[in-house]
Amino acid sequence: MLAASPGRTTPPGLVFALLESQGSTVSDKRTATQNETETPTRGCMLVRMTRDMIVQVWEAEGAKFSGHGVTIREEREATCFIQSSGEVMTIARITKMELRDGFLSLQTAKDERYVFAYEDVLGFKLSSPSMPKERPAGFGR
């Protein structure tokens, strides 16, 4: 399990791998190193994702896997949240995702490629792409 830092807010729309079937819960808990006289640390407990959890999230989204990968539909926008040394790293505008035996590969709209272990993935944000606002040219209203 992975504990979020106290005082951090969770991004809205984030899909966490908190599956009741695995007995996971979000609550205040004592860590194994705390003794009974210490106060519990506040924060939520997040389960690190597995390959099976990621497949379940994307199948629920309606994604169709071909081979090891999936291409994200153009009418959906996906963001992945990664745990990295105490910080949460955000990979936005994912267009393709490959699931291999020991790692996950993400490709973005800027043609950037990221590779992570499944255990580093905290969750995904799935939404509709933002539409640009229509504004007149120049300074007039």
Fold and architecture overview:
The chain has one helix spanning 51-60, and strands at 2-3, 14-16, 45-46, 69-71, 77-84, 87-91, 94-99, 104-108, 113-116, 121-127. The chain is mainly beta. The model is unreliable at 1-40 (pLDDT under 50).
Topology:
Layout: E1 2-3, E2 14-16, E3 45-46, H1 51-60, E4 69-71, E5 77-84, E6 87-91, E7 94-99, E8 104-108, E9 113-116, E10 121-127
Antiparallel strand pairs: 1-3, 2-10, 4-7, 5-6, 5-10, 7-8, 8-9
Strand content: 25-35%
The total of helices stands at: 1
- Helix % is under 10%
Q: Tell me the series of helices and strands, N- to C-terminal.
A: EEEHEEEEEEE
- Count of individual beta strands: 10
Q: What is the average per-residue confidence, as pLDDT, rounded to a whole number?
A: 73
Strand order of the largest sheet: 2-10-5-6
Shape: globular
Q: In angstroms, what separates the terminal alpha carbons?
A: 53 Å
Radius of gyration, whole Å: 18 Å
- Biggest sheet architecture: 4 strands, antiparallel
Number of domains: 1
> pLDDT under 50 segments (min length 5)?
1-40
Structural class: mainly beta
From the structure above, extract its key features.
mainly beta; 4-stranded antiparallel β-sheet; disordered N terminus; 141 residues; globular; 10 strands
Short structural summary:
With about 140 residues, the chain is mainly β. The protein contains one helix and ten strands.
